[in-house]
Input
Amino acid sequence: MASKNKKIFSVFFREKPAMMLVTLLSSTQEHYASSLAKVVDCTYSHIVKILNEMQKADLVTFKKSGRLKILALTKRGEEVAGAIEKIRTTL
Output
């Protein structure tokens, strides 16, 4: 994304949370908090805080797989992430 477009996108959305949803929507691999933190370039503690808020808003779910909590978008989360991605690519 061009620098100018990235700046205008961040005017409307907080970049890290928006990109978390878009990453979960477009990824073909399973993600958990620490792997998502690396992709989005954010601290683990910040990711966990945002994910907990997203879970309360019914955007993501956590599926326990051994010691890991695998992240998944809910139907609502998919809709929101799709809308964010559409706006991001339009800008």
